[in-house]
Amino acid sequence: xxxxxxxxxxxxxxxxxxxxxxxxxxxxxxxxxxxxxxxxxxxxxxxxxxxxxxxxxxxxxxxxxxxxxxxxxxxxxxxxxxxxxxxxxxxxxxxxxxxxxxxxxxxxxxxxxxxxxxxxxxxxxxxxxxxxxxxxxxxxxxxxxxxxxxxxxxxxxxxxxxxxxxxxxxxxxxxxxxxxxxxxxxxxxxxxxxxxxxxxxxxxxxxxxxxxxxxxxxxxxxxxxxxxxxxxxxxxxxxxxxxxxxxxxxxxxxxxxxxxxxxxxxxxxxxxxxxxxxxxxxxxxxxxxxxxxxxxxxxx
Amino acid sequence: xxxxxxxxxxxxxxxxxxxxxxxxxxxxxxxxxxxxxxxxxxxxxxxxxxxxxxxxxxxxxxxxxxxxxxxxxxxxxxxxxxxxxxxxxxxxxxxxxxxxxxxxxxxxxxxxxxxxxxxxxxxxxxxxxxxxxxxxxxxxxxxxxxxxxxxxxxxxxxxxxxxxxxxxxxxxxxxxxxxxxxxxxxxxxxxxxxxxxxxxxxxxxxxxxxxxxxxxxxxxxxxxxxxxxxxxxxxxxxxxxxxxxxxxxxxxxxxxxxxxxxxxxxxxxxxxxxxxxxxxxxxxxxxxxxxxxxxxxxxxxxxxxxxxxxxxxxxxxxxxxxxxxxxxxxxxxxxxxxxxxxxxxxxxxxxxxxxxxxxxxxxxxxxxxxxxxxxxxxxxxxxxxxxxxxxxxxxxxxxxxxxxxxxxxxxxxxxxxxxxxxxxxxxxxxxxxxxxxxxxxxxxxxxxxxxxxxxxxxxxxxxxxxxxxxxxxxxxxxxxxxxxxxxxxxxxxxxxxxxxxxxxxxxxxxxxx
Lengths: 300, 513
Fold this sequence. Notes:
The complex is a heterodimer of chains A (300) and B (513).
Chain A lengths: L2 H16 L2 H12 L5 E5 L3 H11 L12 E6 L15 H13 L4 E4 L7 H7 L2 H6 L4 E2 L7 E5 L7 E5 H5 L2 E5 L1 E5 L3 E3 L20 H11 L4 E10 L12 E10 L2 H10 L9 H8 L12 E5 L1
Chain B lengths: L1 H20 L15 H4 L2 H11 L9 H11 L2 H6 L1 H10 L15 H15 L5 H4 L1 H31 L4 H13 L13 H13 L7 H5 L2 H10 L5 E4 L8 H5 L22 H5 L5 E4 L13 H19 L2 H5 L15 H7 L5 H5 L5 E3 L12 E3 L12 H5 L10 H4 L6 E4 L5 H4 L6 H5 L7 E9 L5 E9 L9 H5 L8 E4 L14
Antiparallel strand pairs in B: 1-2, 3-4, 5-8, 6-7
Helix pairs in contact in B: 3-7, 4-13, 7-13, 7-16, 9-10, 9-11
């Protein structure tokens, strides 16, 4: 190696080291996943389906780096057991947590601002026991950690949001697909209500636009939609097995709008039937039209 | 013996406090500890409940053990085990000298209280919980002392947290989370009448500064009952001829049992603490099973006993003569916990111990003031504005010592109606203000929602047509849990609220055919 070559190499390495981490995310998808927008996995084992869906997008290491502080946000707002499909499937949530830990995450935080009593929600949903066993940082929401954030949306200008979500290196949204009286369906975008502080019940007065404002502000690294069981009526908390359908599906994607749009199809609806998906697509937040997307369907 | 006694007292107090702190949900359907154990051992509740309700929760048969112990060993419970007695002991130790300033006859008061309670319960009025020491201490801790301690500790750590000092906050938060997982409650409890109930408790503790163990000596009806039982006790105190009547024993006697008066020792007052045995310079005092019992009589006076009994009986119609009797309906806001027996039977049993309020997962169970009449003072009432009844929670029935609230399975509980929700259409957003809202419907927990929505197009002031969903209550499905009232965005005076009409436990308070 001569001197010139050494200097060249040193300069290149230096440049490589100083490149912002964000660029790395732009480079990897090309080779790994051939630009898969959505992964839809059908199968019997929720853990394997979740793993397969994330792998189809390029693997967890595409999203999570070593020493990341990761927030995994399930929907566990209700005091209901897993078979009633009111909360995210515990196996799906646990698998996401496990994969983050495998990818070298320094900490995986799991929480939700529940509607029913938080203790019961964490335990009865099955998510609490499942993730704490894996070493996740499972904590109840600490009211002191909500801070007013300037959202500057069309409906929501300012709202107290949970600082741990804002401060995390990576955020993975793990909602469940279910019926809702006003929004019609609640999936990825509506799951962000679980990080809202204050009297969030007021946002129902302009729900669709508020959800878009919130989701624009809280763009997650990845969304994993649990549709192992879906709730087709009496949502969002259900309570009767007769309202639950077994759809055995897990959907993963980076674009929350696309995920929700695909999720709607499980209920025999289209993305455009949902006000918040329509508004989100119109504001350029994501893609609602599934025909233009590269959707990878896997059956296990 | 003093050391042994203090260790025993401390141990019982610790068990008491441990069980008290465990009276809280961890998210499972059951608690995992017999949190009402101390109450189960209370023979005063056993006897008065048998008299008032002619039946008693099975747990109370444990109190027969205490009766037997008292018959053998005397009033040892007061001296060695009672948590309130121990607290009185501790506060009393602030006062250096053990002098009595009230007339000797005052010790009779507690027997009159006992007679009053026994006779009123004989005529179905159960008032024992107001003065029963175990009900009193659990209630005072639940409603007042523990919330107060929590508030103090939380305020301290929150203040440190707000300073945002690096390092300091890390340490304080570590300590705080340690306290949260052990001593502190899950969330800050808030109770109505906390000041009132707490002040009574502080007064009782404060009376120790007037005279050591004032409450135990003069007022406690459980002490009186155990005192009567210990008249028969086999363990006796005897004083040998070596006694010089120096009076040392009287100076350490916590119960004013007159250990210094030869032949004047009152077995019904003695806590068998052995202080007199310990201090006697001549070693003349001994406790044993053999010697003949030499003790003074109880000296209550026949007339006074009769008057106490009559007072107890007379209180029954006096306290029950209320206008509510006339219309045959209770205060509509009197929402009883699910599983509560019908009101008369409920009141015959409830001892106002506050266990249900302590355990209530939403802090919605509060002590009544006059909603249930004077007779029901401090019994539980659900105040949905403060906390709703969690659909799948059955803890209040599990911890109720008396069976006033029956233990229910989750399945059964979800079908018990404690009241019905109705709308205030003048305040409801979609009904009165052309504004979308579905919160009550969203949170309604019954599998087929008791609240249903009707699509309506309404006109706003500017003539704009607005699509709203107007809520309705299906009275056949509503169970009155009050979550709709609790979560209604119209705060303060919600647009949907629950009253006790339609409650399962009452035959009269029905609405639908």
